[in-house]
Amino acid sequence: MTDIIIALDYENDTDALALVDKIDPNMAKLKVGKEMFTRYGPSLVQQLHSREFKVFLDLKFHDIPNTVAKAIKASADLGVWMVNVHSSGGEKMMTAAKEALHAYGKDAPLLIGVTVLTSLQQEDLTLVGITNRLLDHTLSLAELAQKVGLDGVVCSAQEAQNIKNKLGQNFRLVTPGIRLSMDNSDDQKRVVTPLKAKELGVDHMVIGRPITQSDNPISVLEEIYHSINN
Ligand SMILES: O=c1ccn([C@@H]2O[C@H](COP(=O)(O)O)[C@@H](O)[C@H]2O)c(=O)[nH]1
């Protein structure tokens, strides 16, 4: 089962909520990222919760273990459905994040590790001194995330089959870099169409601009929803 998470990346909350108010929460979950959280903070998340949406708080924490653990606790207190950290923050940081959620039991948000951003390709890794193949680097970050008990990873759908084959079907894959055609991928580099992402076994596809910047966001959302739920 693959579902849709809409990346709610807007400059103002009026535009964001105008879209949200046209969406059925059964059709999509919502992702609040750095842009909107920096402007509107927890109150935006609360407004989405009051409209019955599940919220993925995509702040990609990357800091020392103590700071990340505290930020994860603050996210859990907000009641979000999913939250994430950068897996490259290391084993101790991810373990601290996981431990911060123990007290929440079954109400804890899903904890997801970011592997290699979908805007990056092999040459970008080389430029920051990573000489491993991009797929191998993604797999080793995913393996580390699983080892410390995270629920899944953010990756490109291009890596989905390799990760599922290595780490099992229950390890959740959250995949941005979804594009309806390869003509305009914006700043994304490792892109996949919604139907292909579903075939590759992703659990949650993250879609922003193809929906939010289109002339008719709801009809694009409905088209994608029906194409992957046939
Ligand atoms: O590797 C990553 C991790 C997170 N993102 C986020 O997903 C959305 C994608 O938006 P589009 O408009 O569909 O490109 C955006 O909020 C990113 O911050 C990602 O793209 N890649």
Automatic annotation (TrEMBL):
<dbReference type="InterPro" id="IPR011060">
    <property type="entry name" value="RibuloseP-bd_barrel"/>
</dbReference>
<feature type="binding site">
    <location>
        <position position="209"/>
    </location>
    <ligand>
        <name>substrate</name>
    </ligand>
</feature>
<dbReference type="Pfam" id="PF00215">
    <property type="entry name" value="OMPdecase"/>
</dbReference>
<dbReference type="InterPro" id="IPR014732">
    <property type="entry name" value="OMPdecase"/>
</dbReference>
<feature type="binding site">
    <location>
        <position position="31"/>
    </location>
    <ligand>
        <name>substrate</name>
    </ligand>
</feature>
<feature type="domain" description="Orotidine 5'-phosphate decarboxylase">
    <location>
        <begin position="3"/>
        <end position="224"/>
    </location>
</feature>
<feature type="binding site">
    <location>
        <position position="9"/>
    </location>
    <ligand>
        <name>substrate</name>
    </ligand>
</feature>
<protein>
    <recommendedName>
        <fullName>Orotidine 5'-phosphate decarboxylase</fullName>
        <ecNumber>4.1.1.23</ecNumber>
    </recommendedName>
</protein>
<dbReference type="InterPro" id="IPR018089">
    <property type="entry name" value="OMPdecase_AS"/>
</dbReference>
<feature type="binding site">
    <location>
        <position position="118"/>
    </location>
    <ligand>
        <name>substrate</name>
    </ligand>
</feature>
<feature type="binding site">
    <location>
        <position position="179"/>
    </location>
    <ligand>
        <name>substrate</name>
    </ligand>
</feature>
<dbReference type="InterPro" id="IPR013785">
    <property type="entry name" value="Aldolase_TIM"/>
</dbReference>
<comment type="function">
    <text>Catalyzes the decarboxylation of orotidine 5'-monophosphate (OMP) to uridine 5'-monophosphate (UMP).</text>
</comment>
<comment type="similarity">
    <text>Belongs to the OMP decarboxylase family. Type 1 subfamily.</text>
</comment>
<comment type="pathway">
    <text>Pyrimidine metabolism; UMP biosynthesis via de novo pathway; UMP from orotate: step 2/2.</text>
</comment>
<keyword id="KW-0665">Pyrimidine biosynthesis</keyword>
<keyword id="KW-0456">Lyase</keyword>
<feature type="active site" description="Proton donor">
    <location>
        <position position="60"/>
    </location>
</feature>
<feature type="binding site">
    <location>
        <position position="208"/>
    </location>
    <ligand>
        <name>substrate</name>
    </ligand>
</feature>
<feature type="binding site">
    <location>
        <begin position="58"/>
        <end position="67"/>
    </location>
    <ligand>
        <name>substrate</name>
    </ligand>
</feature>
<keyword id="KW-0210">Decarboxylase</keyword>
<dbReference type="InterPro" id="IPR001754">
    <property type="entry name" value="OMPdeCOase_dom"/>
</dbReference>
<feature type="binding site">
    <location>
        <position position="188"/>
    </location>
    <ligand>
        <name>substrate</name>
    </ligand>
</feature>
<comment type="subunit">
    <text>Homodimer.</text>
</comment>
<dbReference type="GO" id="GO:0004590">
    <property type="term" value="F:orotidine-5'-phosphate decarboxylase activity"/>
</dbReference>
<dbReference type="InterPro" id="IPR047596">
    <property type="entry name" value="OMPdecase_bac"/>
</dbReference>
